[in-house]
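Q: Structure tokens for this one, please.
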Amino acid sequence: MAAKQRHAAIDRTDPRPLHQQVYEDLLATIREGKVPLRGKLPSERELVSLYDVSRITVRHAVRELIRQGVVQSQPGKGLYVAENGGGFELEVLRSFTSTAMASGRAPGHRLLAMEVIKASLDITRPLLLPPGSDVIVLSRLRLLDGVPVVLQTDWISASRAPGLTGMDWTVANRSLYAELREVYGIQPRRGQTTLSARLASSDEAAMLELASPSAVLTVDQIAFDERDRPINMTALVHHPGRYPLTLLQSATGDFRQYW
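A: Here is the predicted structure, written as tokens:
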């Protein structure tokens, strides 16, 4: 992380705040392996010099890295790349809540919408429902340690989950899959996922605390039950820095995550 290299990362004509530029550059540096697992980051004084910014700017950026679990502060020693900083494993049949808790993070959400609609063909067709069927729409802003990371919208046939809209979805850590399994006896058995990327809309950028324009990772999923019937369709919009995804693959089926 030589000074000349790092100064180029800060663009004072960029509409993004300086602390966000520092945060994103440090995050990229870690993701690219330029600072290894358990490796030590430069000191606050060195970062101030490298980026040519104030201490407050550096502290704001570092605080975000700590909150995301990318780095850990060791009192009297400095900042080190955390072992769980490699992203969140992509699993269709695992809820956001379960994934977060397995990573040692605190999941949460803000309810954006919970309603029954007469669904259009782009919703009913993947769910194998007749046109105009009643479909439950559950939309939430998902949080990790109180920080917005994912916009999630789920669609499920109203006939398969009667009473779902009557539940209190403002309750912290309420899991859709847990309710489907425990209340309705619906167990996801397989699923399919499509990954893509695009520019965030102004509303998405505001809710995910992204500068505009910014790219987002999109994840579209459908889960199926043991009879291969669609259970729910999910659309997710990911903050690319706060909620990166990891896909583990192995010819033998044995996985080891190198993070």
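A few notes: The helical segments are 3-7, 18-31, 44-51, 55-67, 96-102, 121-124, 176-184, 202-207. The two ends are 20 Å apart (CA to CA).
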